[in-house]
Amino acid sequence: MTANEVQMREDALQMANAAIKAVDPEVAVRDRIKVEQAEDKILLVAKEDRDSTHALGYDLSEYDKIRVVSFGKASAAMALAVADTLSDALSNANAPVPQVDGVAVIKDDHATEEEMRTLTEKHNIVVVSASHPVPDARSVAAADEILQLAASSDAKTLIIACISGGGSALFCSPRDGLALDDLMAANSRLLESGMPIEHMNVIRKRLEKGKGGKLAAAAYPATVLSLVLSDIIGDPLDLIASGPTVPDPSGWEDAWNLVEEYSLNAGGDHELPRAVLDLLQRGKAGQFEDTPKSSHPAFATKMDGQQLSETILVGNNYAAVMAAADEATSLGYNPVLLGTRVDGEASCVAGMYVAMAEMLARQRHEPNCKYPIAALPAALIAGGETTVTLPPMCKGKGGRNQELALSAAMKMADIGLRDVVLASVGTDGTDGPTDAAGGVIYGGLVNADSMDAAKEALRDHDAYTFLDSAEGSLVKTGPTGTNVADVAICLIK
Which of 309, 316, 155 is nearest to 245 (CA)? Predict the structure, then answer.
């Protein structure tokens, strides 16, 4: 590595860490909700934006129970922030206060022992672990427990749902006629197909009991406030964790069109289980009721003008990208923001980043470049979520960020690009089924001696193994407790 590359690698990782810290779920939730004493009332106030003057208000004297249900990779931290906020205020109240209980479903190893103990012993919130990205029997048991809790609620219950990326797998109960094995196989086929997460969730909504507004419908006539940490490009509330508490605008026809588009039908490259295909076909034919729409009473407007089910977005990819850009500026780079809607095949997106980096690098020798992207040193920063299309029975180890990083290293080697560093990181600290958050590479990582091995690793979708052999090329943050998709940083000097 050149001296520049050594320093740029440290800088890129510092920017990535700043991005992750900016979307810490506990901070994000505490920024949005407060409990205030107003005359003889205790009000839970939920701000729609950190700096907004407009807020939702809930008079806690109107409720006998407050139930916190939380699922997703940020589940523990979000539930704890809500419970602590409520506890701090209610413990000092002079009037009768609602009882607090609930369920938090966490991904394995995504909560500390102290978090779990505090939630259970102090706040009466049951903590259960489940599998991600493919659901398991624990996911079903957890989802059923939450649905039962919702169904046992009444008009004097306030349900606070904390929802984050990964919730689709952690809150997963197959509808009648399907078994967990059907859902597990379906999820595997969806992942193999390279389908974007927002498309996957259109199908998932129809296969389960709680997705697509069904949790809000089960809770009716309770009041529902959802706090959402978005992991999907564009923050579509109906698709994050498959939209369990918001109306579903999609239908059976949309789901079936995706089956055909991504070759998921019988005899297709990624054939879904027969029971799933039968269900989708029968739904398309009008034999099954669809997901709740905006006309469902669970989404009705109350006398105070608020809806019975309201949603607040507490954090997203944009916040992470902006934090990375702020850090880049503080380190002396000129940031170029490429947006937060970057998607597509990871190897192709890598080519775009390298092409832009090459154009910027030309300015080293062309100081009077006619159309400069930015002055050097520059930082290309982007957010979003790429995909990797896996062949059947793929045994490679890696994830989309690792594959993007390896692809970029190979392209830099092809064109002899040096003094360029790229880091691509999942904000949740987990990239694919590995212990790495992503990869960080430089122009000389792949050379003539290692190019064949790099090509083999990319072909076999085994980026983890290759990057692990190159010291310092895997980014390992451990579980971060948050999840707002990915951040890519490309530095050029």
Answer: 309
Contact indicator for 314, 70 with CB cutoff of 8 Å: no
- How far, CA to CA in Å, does 249 sit from each of 117, 196, 255? 39, 18, 12
Instruction: Please tell me the predicted confidence (pLDDT) of residue 379.
Output: 98
Mean pLDDT in residue range 244-250: 96
For the chain, how many helices (H) and strands (E)?
A: 16, 15
Query: What is the Cα–Cα distance from 383 to 427, expressed in whole angstroms?
Result: 10
Measuring CA to CA, how many Å separate 110 from each of 71, 316, 438?
A: 11, 19, 17
Copy the structure tokens of residue 394.
């793929």
| C-alpha span between 68 and 101 (Å, rounded) | 6
Residue 191: pLDDT above 70?
Answer: yes
pLDDT tens-digit series, residues 437-465: 999 999 999 999 999 999 999 999 999 99
What single-letter amino acid sits at 332?
Answer: G
- How many residues are given for the chain? 493
- Whole-number Å distance between alpha carbons of 358 and 338: 16
In the β-sheet with 378-384, what is the strand arrangement from edge to edge? 334-337, 378-384, 486-492, 420-426, 438-442, 474-475
* Per-residue pLDDT reduced to its tens digit, 299-358: 999 888 899 999 999 999 999 999 999 999 999 999 999 999 999 999 999 999 999 999
Q: What is the DSSP letter of 342?
A: B
